[in-house]
């Protein structure tokens, strides 16, 4: 019979321990970005960072100095900023301040994998988020983590739980990997079609300087606008708001009307303008689809097309093609953070057919994009369901409800999610 926590009571043989009693906790250190390199080198170590709540998806190495906070393969790295509670393991190296290293103190008391599996559950992550959500930007403290209590069964029971979880998650993780692959393939199909159009072109396409087919190309004011804490009708668009063809205003900073008027004295942004980021990151593009009072934050350029020469959605798609992206990268300067100079944003070259052909291209790409986004939404729903399934199993594991048949049930449930 499985052990089970009822009415807050631990099963016989289980004990409650503070996290700080069973693990060593250590936040990371941020060396200067000027020291980053992207290839292994003697005297350098791998440096783990966070992007979008996950371990970094690009390799960075930093000089091996005493100031670095080191990590070994047996250690657990937990995200301690924004997406708190996500965990991963890596090779030896160092890690930044957005991560917390968790090291098992005594393997005769606590199994490494048991510790790894319990962190993303309500017992740990749930408690951390309760405190973090009170802050404007979610972040956790080591002091708070050390005080969190977790259920610890006898070592033999820990190993039984881990064995069942490993088997259960094998099928779920395989389903997640296949779904993520399908998600990537859907996006790549659209990108392949888009690049084929702008590479193959056709009769009547003429290469022109981008400023010759635009009504205006406006850079942002070259300083940061003073923001206010409370929401207002006047919103600042930052580079983080410009992604993948869209300008997302879900997370913006606010200013006073006076600041808004000062920062829009060159031009007031309007619906249909195409925005390009010059830095952090360089080359992201999006179209403004709002009539709100918005203005450009730093490192953003606005393109307003001459409608007699250039369709604005044609320009949006052209910016996403390899041809223009390659030009943008060729103009990049800066040894650490690459950026594009304002004068270069006006001399990019774009191949332009007649307006009628531009509109045909846009219609085809709009249709394919709609189909791609529909597929992506389906795959994301499946990924969400699969991750919820994992969380459900984890929660059962640490309340003593796992049975020998859990793995088979999990595999069957994962297949049903994928087939739906």
UniProtKB/TrEMBL annotation:
Keyword Ribosomal protein: no
UniProt domain Type I restriction modification DNA specificity: residue ranges: 11-170, 203-373
Xref: SUPFAM superfamilies: DNA methylase specificity domain
InterPro entries named among the record's database cross-references: Restrct_endonuc_typeI_TRD, Restrct_endonuc_typeI_TRD_sf, Type-I_RS_S_subunit
Presence of keyword Hydrolase: yes
Tree of life domain: Bacteria
GO molecular function: endonuclease activity
This protein's UniProt keywords: DNA-binding, Endonuclease, Hydrolase, Nuclease, Restriction system
Pfam families, per the entry: Methylase_S (PF01420)
Similarity annotation: Belongs to the type-I restriction system S methylase family.
Entry protein name: Restriction endonuclease subunit S
Organism: Trichocoleus desertorum GB2-A4
